[in-house]
User: What shape does this take?
Amino acid sequence: MTSDEISTRTRHEVIVIGAGVSGIYQIKRLTDLGIDAIVLEGDDDLGGTWYRNRYPGARFDSESYTYGYSFSKEVLAEWHWKERFSAQPENLRYLNFVADKFDLRRHMRFNSRVEQMTWHDDTSEWHLSLTSGEKYIARFVIASLGPLSQPTLPSYPGMDAFAGESFHTFHWPKEPVALEGQRVGVIGTGATGIQVISVIADQVAELKVFQRRPNWSSPLNNAAISADEMQAIRDRYDEIFENCKNSPGGFEHLPDWRGFWNFTPEERHARWDQLYTESGFAILASNFAEIFFDEKANAEISEYIADRIRGRVDDPATAEKLIPRDHGFGMQRLPLETRYFEAYNLDHVHLVDLSETPIDHVTATGIQTTGEHHELDLIVYATGFDAITGGYDRINITGVDGATLADKWRSSPRTFLGMLTNGFPNLLMVAGPQSASGSTNFPRAIETGVNWVTDLVHHATETGTTRIEATAEAEDEWVDEVIRAHERMLFRRSKGWFTGYNSNVKGHQEGTIRYQAYFGGAPQFSARIDACAASGYEGLELV
Ligand SMILES: Cc1cc2nc3c(=O)[nH]c(=O)nc-3n(C[C@H](O)[C@H](O)[C@H](O)COP(=O)(O)OP(=O)(O)OC[C@H]3O[C@@H](n4cnc5c(N)ncnc54)[C@H](O)[C@@H]3O)c2cc1C
Assistant: This one.
């Protein structure tokens, strides 16, 4: 590259990619330390997940006050969460409130999608190119690309021929979408499908739910938070975050270690009756820990939840179709719902079981299955994401000696502590693959990751370190640890993003297992990364 070409590039010590929950906190930490850093964000505004997913029903299933940032006493004192599980509009307002409070927008460049990154070993720098043609140079790149930022669509013939409106839930328009009087088809019954179906069922003239495989789901039990309750939460914030820190999932819900088999079936059912009415992930995260490891324990809780479904759906045949047979309760990302099962008791809501009659093609006026044609005005694709590694696969990342990250991670990601990957120096990842974030309440893990990465960059700038790379040996050891933790869990056989399954992404189909996240628990993960830092970053080569 000529010196002219290099001089047209904008240079920064650190470039953060992505302005979601991770990028917002990351840029705050870096600029507080006086480090020259900017954020490049592909979208036209900040917020990531909460900027995009505007579909009716999009909301937290983490308790709002355990999801929010913990780093600022002022934010904690000033922000009033209005609901226990707050919805997308409020979540986006919250992220804007934080960014504006600390004047962070001035460090963010919007409409700046990174499409290529090339490592230059001679100068120890990354060269970045955007889709706009703009070019940057950075010593360090911090990727906060998002775990669920790359939506995926199925590839049915005729999708483009549909004459009505159709979109992925991630791309639900900002403008109001007319639902009243409409015949709507929703494809997909994962966490998003369940949220959107529950809310629009009452609003539309006819709803067809196209279900390939049912998911387990349990009640969210949402409620408003009054001013007095919010004050009580504020008074308890230190305790709340301490509890989250000590729980495997980063929630206030703590696992029950008293022993599944120490109780009679009646006692267990009485406990589950109580958990079913508690909020959020309590039924999963506060359950007997054995449900995650012991097939018989998992089968019993699955049967309990199946009975709950039977008790809520009027038509016994429909109820049976809504009960998963291919995985146990909690073995895929558990969607939480509000009157989801009751939606099927409405006369105008119909379940189309794609395991019996698969979709053949999309027509100008609807969906043709192998059984019949379904006339529709609107098609909603709730078909999920290329999870965890999708953001990385969409950037052409070339590291040492021309090796590409896409090649390295083709069959499964490989990282050291989910933070770095050998062969790609100075590329740091917040909430990256094989960190604990994928298995926990994200923001808790995001803050942990940002703090660790910031300390490392600060250490580098203080010591004049220009090149940081995870050693191949340290990476091998961490990958082994990730696999060991994965193998202990029953979900290792399930088809969901925990195991990297997505039939709409090449290489992620059935039969492939990708080790996407660390399932050893948040406290163990924090202890491990803290030990690495305390040892002077053993496992990393700092030059
Ligand atoms: C509908 C929905 C509900 C969820 N609910 C919860 C919940 O209740 N609890 C929970 O813990 N987690 C939840 N999650 C997970 C959620 O993604 C995380 O909680 C959190 O928002 C992740 O923040 P992030 O900043 O890491 O990623 P994101 O919010 O996804 O932000 C990543 C940003 O990076 C940008 N980006 C990506 N690639 C590029 C590129 N090449 N160039 C430039 N910019 C790029 C994207 O545009 C995006 O703005 C939910 C996810 C979804 C989709």
